[in-house]
Structures are given as structure tokens and as C-alpha cells.
């Protein structure tokens, strides 16, 4: 029996635990820093069919229909005049069993968590040392030790574990944007809408069948290193109000109805950590964090975890290496989306809108740009 340590019980770590449940030759333990999970969190997440296929294999399709939403289009709207430019039909990438899905992030986490036996997750974990000794020897702050054959590092964007065991790591960088998240109540339809404004964009989509919507805006903002270190700044009402009032108004959205506002600086990866350590795998944001303009972070976390298990079972890193190539290409596309969503010069906006109108209906382009990711 081989033992696997999963560090971090986020989307990636919990999904990995779920697929290990059916592997008889492995046992696992998750080490999670938090003392518990909060399944009340109302923020949303989009999952494209590539990850939905994998989730459906572990029973995701049995979630009550009222807790998910299946948008059929992405609408592109110019925020300053509220005019719809075009839309992309998402159903062309669906198949009869797997559909593009939006839901609350907490609904996804709760689904993944319920299949993890209680004794296989250790909350409040603080790993202080990892030594290589015929496998891995993990030391926790209460000075207990545990030994494992494999290490899955899935402790998110600011992974501390990476620095405990890898030599060559690059910290994520602030990408000069702040995310403003909130909940919207009302009727904003069943699709995803992207509002493009000067130096910002915002996205609205349903998170269930109860007229609850996720709102997320990505706003360009220069911040000093002192401001970035000041967690209280991002929670302060003054800062939240200033972000809200900087949003381009549109007749279609009542910003006054936004609730549970939260903001945080957007950090992204600039390169991959060195990955030549045997039996150590990085997954999710600990491996690579994208700009949030392609809504692929969670889907890629799930795919990477799946490829890690295939690589372990095959005794080669082939699947894992291939995933890393895919992540690089998605990162390029995320950066390009971000750039084009934030254009401000009227001529550039005019050209972008016309190109977008053309490309959104061009099957060859869509297959290359989205199909290759969604149909893996
Ligand atoms: C504004 C925004 C919007 C987004 N929207 C989408 C979207 O619509 N669709 C999408 O696919 N992706 C989206 N993403 C990206 C997505 O949220 C992440 O890529 C995804 O959550 C990564 O999962 P993860 O498991 O790697 O990390 P996380 O979900 O961050 O989980 C990491 C876990 O590790 C734990 N941890 C941290 N440190 C330690 C430690 N030292 N020891 C033990 N445990 C530790 C944490 O408590 C946490 O539980 C968005 C991101 C942003 C910023």
C-alpha cells in the first residue's frame, strides 16, 4: 500500500482525494491549514465541460438541479452604452451528459468534501518541515511526524509547501488588478454576461435556480507594496466603495443591489517551479495561477489532479508534463482576453468589437480557441 500526502484541501486537493477513493493500492491523508470549511460562501465559479466530465465521473451529476445553472451563451457587452456586441454559443461544446455549469464555489467544495472520510483529513495543519528519506517525512508543528511515498502540493497560490521542499521557486506577482466580488439578486437571465469597460471588465452569471448571481469585476489598479501587504485595506468600506464607484455604470445592472462585497489583489504566476523531483507533484494554483479572464483555474486544477493520478498509475510523468504544456497555452489566452476586455481607446474598441463579432461565429476559430480546451 502506497501512502499519499495531499497538502491543501481546496478544489484540487479534494478532487484528487475523491479519485483516489477508488484506488485500492493507495491510501491518502489531506493536510488542511484551515480549522474547518465554510460552506455558506455565496461566491460563484464557472466550470467548463472539460472539468464537468471529470466531476460527473465521481457523481457530480447527482447534485440537485436547483443548486446549479447551465448557461448556454456568453454575452459580450460594451459597458459604456450597454450594447451587446455578440455572443458565443456554449452549447456547441457540450455533449448530452456534460454541460458548461455555474454554481456556488461552496456547493462544489461541499460535494467534494462529503466523500472524504473524516479520519483522512487533518484540519489545522501546520507543516513545518518536509524531509526526503526513503519517501517523505512530514513534520507538523506539534512535533509529530508522518511518512509518505508521494507528495501532492495543492495549497494554493501562496503555497508555503513549495518553499519547504523545492529549491527553485518564483513567487506569484501582483498583476496590477484588483478583483471585486459580490452577490447580485434579481433577474439577469440564465447566461454569462461579460461587460467590457475601459481598464476593467465585469462578469455576471447565475449560481443556482434562485435568482442569485455572482458578480466579479477585474479593475486595473496600481498599488504600492505597503498597500498590497495591508489586508485591512481590501476589507475597508472606503476601499470597497471606491472600487464600486469606479465601475462603468450600465443601465442593465443595479450596482446598489450588490451585497457581500469583497476585494483582493490579483496575483498570477510568471513561470513554472522546477518539477524534476521524483514523486512530488504540484496541482492547481500551487502549480500555476492564471489571470482570471478565462475562468479556467478550477477546471485546470481538476484536470491536473486527474493527470497526476494517471502519471502515478503509469509510473511516468507523461500526462503531467502534457498538462503543463496545456496550462502555458491557456495562460497566453487568459492574458490576451484580459488585454482585449480592458481596451480604452475608441478606435481599438471599435476594431475589437468587429473582430469579436466575426470570431464569435467562426467555427474554426472557436474550435481552436475554446474547443481544444473544453474538449480535452
Ligand atoms: C476573481 C477570481 C475568479 C475566479 N473564477 C474562476 C472561475 O469562474 N472558474 C474557474 O475555473 N476558476 C476560477 N478562478 C480560479 C480558481 O478559483 C482557482 O484556480 C482554484 O480555486 C484553485 O484551486 P486550488 O485547489 O489549487 O487552490 P485553493 O482553492 O486556493 O485551495 C488551497 C487550499 O490549501 C489550503 N492551504 C493553504 N496553505 C496551506 C498550508 N500551508 N498547509 C495546508 N493547507 C494549506 C487553503 O486553506 C485551501 O483550502 C478564479 C480566481 C479568481 C481570483
Give descriptors for this structure:
7-stranded mixed sheet; alpha/beta; 376 residues; binds flavin-adenine dinucleotide; 5-stranded parallel sheet; 11 helices; FAD/NAD(P)-binding domain
Structure in words:
The chain is an alpha/beta fold. The protein has one domain (2-171, 269-374): FAD/NAD(P)-binding domain. Helices cover 32% and strands 28% of the residues. The protein contains eleven helices and 18 strands. It has helices at residues 11-20, 49-56, 105-113, 160-165, 225-229, 231-235, 237-246, 297-314, 318-341, 346-359, 363-374, and strands at residues 2-7, 26-31, 44-47, 68-69, 73-78, 83-89, 101-104, 121-122, 127-132, 136-140, 145-148, 150-153, 173-185, 192-197, 200-206, 212-220, 259-268, 280-282. A seven-stranded mixed sheet has the order 6-5-14-15-16-13-17, with helices on both faces. A five-stranded parallel sheet has the order 8-2-1-12-18, covered by helices on one side. A hairpin with a 5-residue loop joins strand 15 and strand 16 (212-220). Helix 2 crosses helix 8 (297-314) and helix 8 (297-314) runs antiparallel to helix 9 (318-341). It starts with a strand and ends with a helix. The model has no long low-confidence stretch (mean pLDDT 94). Bound molecules: flavin-adenine dinucleotide. Flavin-adenine dinucleotide binds next to helix 1, strand 3, helix 4 and helix 8.
